[in-house]
Specification:
The complex is a heterodimer.
Chain A (H helix, E strand, L loop, with lengths): L3 E6 L3 H12 L3 E6 L2 H10 L4 E5 L7 H11 L4 E6 L4 H9 L4 E4 L4 H13 L5
Parallel strand pairs in A: 1-2, 1-3, 3-4, 4-5
Helix pairs in contact in A: 2-3
Chain B lengths: L3 H9 L7 H9 L1 H31 L5 H26 L4 H18 L11 E3 L8 H17 L8 E4 L1 H10 L2 H11 L5 H16 L5 H18 L6 E7 L15 E5 L4 H10 L4 H10 L8 E7 L3 E8 L10 E8 L3 H4 L6 E6 L5 E6 L5 E5 L6 E5 L2 H4 L6 H18 L3 E8 L4 E8 L21 E2 L2 E4 L2 E8 L3 H5 L5 E5 L15 E4 L8 H9 L3 E3 L4 H4 L5 E5 L4 E4 L19 H13 L20 H17 L9 E2 L9 E4 L25 H11 L14 H13 L8 E6 L2 E7 L3 E8 L8 E8 L7 H13 L3 E5 L2 E7 L3 H17 L24
Parallel strand pairs in B: 16-17, 17-18, 18-19, 23-24
Antiparallel strand pairs in B: 1-2, 2-5, 3-4, 3-5, 6-7, 6-12, 7-8, 8-9, 10-11, 12-13, 14-21, 15-19, 16-20, 20-21, 22-23, 24-25, 25-26, 26-27, 27-29, 28-29
Helix pairs in contact in B: 1-22, 3-4, 3-19, 3-20, 4-5, 4-19, 4-20, 5-19, 5-20, 8-9, 9-11, 21-24
The chains are: A alpha/beta, B alpha+beta.
Chain lengths: 125, 853
């Protein structure tokens, strides 16, 4: 098994950069996208095992992006990141097929544990 | 003011005479007077309402935050200030003494609610070696203790490091204007459930993380880091970045695991990590914890310690005494391979040693467990990695006996120095030497002595075994928490059942009645610490708890015996588990302290015989004095000849009405020719209410007590006349817009019933002053009897040496009228020899009736 392929989607450049940097140092193959469309384009080029998805972004928002991802590659695990956005929308996200959500800011530990959990979980969840 | 002698003279010669100059002046100012009076009443109503709210908070032990205390105090001061201003408008005097007293009180209250004094240390960073216990306000409790150990015990190993101080925290907040912004959000956000709490927590944390560090601070941290590299002798030192909040880890409030700690941090991410740790002040658990423990938010600046990473072989936690029993002869040591994070975060059930303290440390008992995972840190990575252990490693003891004894000796040394049992986190490096990583006072909670339960003898336990993490017994429904999503749906009063005692779950502790976890090391670990602090029973290391315990099933857990029984749903009237008490928490204490300057009147009538500083000690006194002075001024109007109208009622004695709403007073040209028609009691809603109360009573009025002798009677009337609040008629209603004032000036008692019932409930109030004189002081038992009666009806009651005040505030107009009616009835009651055992219908507020129409 090669490196786990993670895509982080977040419109806040600082947050995105820090998270990509941290995960890269932890033996993940990490890419970052600053918006929903960019994320879908990156996934089209190369699928990811796990997507960390900010729910509230300008342009194509997290919910739409989530639906698109699930439509095109149902096996991809999506973990929702939620910040200012409401926790309720994160719960809605779970009903749309996301694995779980994390409230920003989460520690690297929590994020990594969640990634591991999602990979061990039954994809049909 | 008329000369008392003159008044005396008037009085003896058949009734008072008006003072024409004074009254004409008053009549000319009537519109201003009425307006100021109205505003004064509104302010008094709001003030009483606030006092009532603060009292309720103290009495009910309800949720209070520092924000609440501060806003209540500010509003209370503002309203009393407004009363003083309107009093000055009414009387035209400056009332300097009263104003000065108020200013003193206000300053005293301000001091009490103000945050902590600025940190005495100005440095933004300090080397750990220069820190000691006396500096906890500047470097936080955790670093103060660690610095103290480093300074005092040269022979002990403590990592090198530096502290980013509270001065740095304050600089960061001020630089970004965050203080006000955070307070604003804390005040404006409505918290209804966990989801709201999540949102607020996330918002505040991101606010901090996304704000830049001031250049000065960046430079200071850089310089401190360079020094650390110099000490270590190589570049690229990795540090453990630990929170060290001021007020954290104090004995009563150990913030175990509430704040973030990041291990193995590189220089590149140091600033981000520093901000993340400051932000963790608003992490869900920490915020929840502060709220539920009544801790002051802004008294807790976040200091951060950066310490060189120890090349750890094994690590763990030592309790120098048993945290769950009073037995003080045993030291407990928990250890795992790798970093101690595996214990505090509950990943692994650790090895356990029990060591006797006397006469020399000696191992009494050891339990080696299978440790399937361990945390390690690599230089090439950021943070820590959870690795599976090899089968050979799993059952290998994480410490040698010699290391255990060495650690025990360190524990005793430190305990002796700090003078209390301690919780010490330590690491043993690859060379086998022990290093102290942190140390704090150990919070102890004792189990019950009567742990045997005959009730359950017949039932077979669902589960038995595991380790007690927090003593006690509780019954509730099972709720399994695995994900963050489960966190949101956790019901009040459920038993938290979880695969791992994650510190994050501590956010649930205010709502949970007990905890059962599949792994974790008993009394060690953050969640166990906090459970003990909240007094919530917990059993850890219960195999398969999440599968065996069915969701929603009622269970009883007995942590002392480590057994779990099936339970029946308790009856509704069953004894509820004791909830965490806010008493003795800092916010509660502050409010109680502030209230000493706000509430409880020193005397019921501070005007009688005259105002002295001893009679004005609280804001209530200032308010009451202002109120009475304003009444006195308004009452001067009653001396205008012909201004009083008789109350048209069938009653043995005459009652009078001064109706300032009367149209004829609006144009005050023919003052000399005033004569008023009798007034029906239905003319004013409050007059009607009060009269209905008075009319329901038999009135053996003291005023009509049998004449003993003409002289004696005259003397008594004389006495009544020189009292500071004496209108020309002893039974007088004064009506003004939505307010009514009843003055009942009797020989043996003085009553002033004042009610304000307008459209704004928060301005409404009703207050009865009953002042007694000398020999007429009611007996204690009678006062108690009356107090019970009034309390039952929802009134506040304050008893002072000279009289009592019964009051209520903040009710809608209709309720206020009914309360006024009850107080009218009460005035008659207190003159009876015996208080009635029950109130008649229509008076009793507890049984709503429609008789007020």
């Amino acid at each position: 098994m090669g490196l786990i392929n993670v895509l982080v989607v977040d419109d806040e450049p600082d947050y995105l950069e820090t998270l990509v940097k941290r995960l890269s140092k932890r033996n993940y193959s990490v890419r970052g996208a600053s918006g929903g469309l960019e994320a879908l384009e990156l996934l089209r080029q190369e699928p990811a095992d796990v997507v960390l998805l900010d729910i509230k972004m300008p342009g194509m928002d997290g919910m739409q992006t989530l639906q698109e991802i699930k439509k095109k590659s149902p096996d991809t695990r999506v973990i929702i990141l939620t910040g200012h956005a409401s926790v309720e929308s994160a719960r809605d996200g779970i009903s749309l097929g996301a694995f779980d959500y994390l409230v920003k800011p989460s520690t690297l530990d929590e994020i990594m544990i969640k990634i591991q959990e999602s990979l061990h979980a039954n994809p049909s969840l | 003011m008329p000369n008392p002698l003159l008044r005396l003279y008037h009085h003896l010669l058949g009734g008072p005479r008006p003072c024409p100059r004074l009254t004409a002046e008053h009549m000319a100012n009537l519109p201003t007077l009425k307006n100021s009076w109205k505003l004064l009443l509104g302010a008094q109503g709001r003030f009483l309402h606030l006092v009532n709210g603060a009292r309720a908070a103290l009495r009910d032990n309800s949720f209070i935050s520092m924000v609440f205390v501060r806003s209540q105090c500010t509003s209370a001061c503002v309203n009393v200030f407004a009363m003083l201003r309107h009093l000055r408008e009414i009387t035209g005097c400056d009332h300097a003494e009263l104003t000065d007293t108020f200013q003193d009180l206000r300053k005293r209250i301000d001091r009490l609610i103000a945050g902590q004094a600025p940190a005495p240390i100005q440095e933004l960073t300090l080397p750990l070696s220069s820190v000691d216990k006396s500096m906890s306000l500047s470097v936080g409790t955790k670093m103060a203790y660690l610095g103290e150990i480093k300074k005092r015990f040269r022979e002990l190993s403590v990592p090198d490091g530096f502290v980013i101080t509270s001065a740095a925290y304050n600089l960061f907040l001020d630089h970004n204007g965050l203080r006000d912004e955070i307070n604003r959000r804390l005040q404006t956000q409505v918290i209804r459930d966990m989801a709201d709490m999540f949102r607020l927590s996330s918002e505040l944390q991101l606010l901090i993380i996304n704000s830049p560090l001031p250049d000065k601070l960046q430079e200071s941290i850089h310089a401190a880091y360079r020094e650390l590299e110099a000490l270590a002798g190589h570049r690229g030192v990795r540090v453990a970045v630990r929170s060290s909040a001021v007020g954290e880890d104090a004995e009563e409030t150990s913030f175990a695991g509430q704040y973030r700690t990041e291990l193995n941090v590189s220089e590149e991410l140091l600033f981000t990590t520093y901000k993340e740790i400051m932000a963790s002040k608003y992490a869900l658990t920490a915020m929840n914890y502060r709220f539920s423990r009544g801790l002051k938010d802004e008294d807790m600046p976040m200091c951060v310690g950066c310490m060189v990473m120890v090349d750890t072989a094994s690590a763990g936690v030592m309790y120098t005494q048993d945290p769950t029993s009073a037995d003080s002869g045993t030291i407990f040591i928990n250890a795992v391979h790798g970093l101690a994070k595996a214990i505090s975060d509950g990943y692994v059930t650790p090895d356990l040693w029990k060591i006797s303290r006397h006469p020399e440390p000696g191992i009494m008992h050891k339990t080696i467990r299978s440790k399937e995972q361990k945390f390690v840190s690599f230089l090439s990575e950021e943070g820590v990695t959870l690795l599976a252990t090899t089968p050979a490693q799993r059952l290998q003891p994480s410490l040698t006996d010699q290391q255990v004894l060495e650690l025990s000796r360190i524990g005793l040394l430190l305990e002796n120095h700090f003078g209390c049992p301690l919780d010490v986190e330590w690491a043993v490096n690859k060379a086998g030497h022990a290093t102290v990583l942190q140390s704090r006072p150990l919070k102890r909670v004792y189990g019950r002595q009567d742990a045997v339960q005959p009730v359950h003898n017949a039932t077979r336990p669902l589960l038995a075994g595991g380790q007690m993490a927090s003593p006690g017994r509780a019954t509730g429904r099972v709720y399994v928490v695995r994900t963050n999503n489960d966190l949101l749906h956790f019901p009040e009063g459920a038993v938290l059942v979880t695969p791992r005692p994650h510190p994050r779950w501590s956010a649930l502790l205010p709502r949970a009645v007990a905890i059962v976890s599949e792994c974790g090391g008993g009394i060690f670990g953050h969640l166990a610490n906090i459970a003990r602090e909240f007094g919530i029973p917990a059993i850890f290391d219960v195999k398969d708890a999440c599968t065996i315990l069915e969701a929603d099933a009622w269970i009883t857990i007995d942590a002392d015996q480590q057994v779990i029984f099936p339970a029946m749903k308790p009856e509704d009237n069953a004894e509820l588990p004791p909830r965490h008490s806010l008493r003795d928490t800092p916010v509660y204490t502050t409010l109680a302290e502030v209230m000493k300057n706000v509430d409880a009147p020193t005397s019921a009538n501070p005007l009688d015989p005259r105002i002295t500083p001893e009679r004005i000690k609280t804001l209530r006194d200032v308010a009451q004095t202002s109120h009475l002075l304003a009444c006195r001024e308004i009452l001067k109007l009653s001396h205008v000849p012909g201004i009083l109208a008789p109350l048209a009622v069938d009653h043995p004695t005459n009652w009078w009405v001064l109706d300032l709403n009367n149209q004829r007073l609006k144009d005050n040209r023919d003052l000399d020719a005033l004569s008023m028609e009798p007034v029906s009691f239905t003319a004013h809603h409050l007059l009607e209410g009060i009269w209905q109360g008075i009319g329901r009573q038999q009135w053996p009025l003291f005023a009509n007590s049998p004449r003993r002798s003409r002289l004696l009677r005259s003397l008594r009337r004389l006495h009544a006349a020189v009292r500071p609040l004496s209108p020309p008629r002893p039974r007088l209603f004064l009506l003004l817009e939505d307010a009514a004032l009843l003055i009942l000036s009797l020989e043996r008692a003085f009553f002033l019933l004042h009610a304000h019932a307008g459209e704004h409930a928060e301005e409404n109030f009703v207050q009865l002053l009953w002042q007694w004189f000398g020999q007429q002081t009611p007996s204690t038992s009678r006062l108690e009897q009356l107090a019970v009666l009034l309390h039952e009806q929802g009134f506040n009651l304050d008893v002072a040496p000279d009289g009592l005040l019964a009051w209520s505030a903040g009710q809608p107009s209709e309720t206020t009228v009914r309360q006024a009616r009850l107080l009218g009835y009460f005035m008659g009651t207190v003159q009876q020899l015996q208080a009635p055992s029950e109130l008649p219908p229509g008076i009793d507020l507890k049984s709503p009736s429609k008789t007020s129409s």
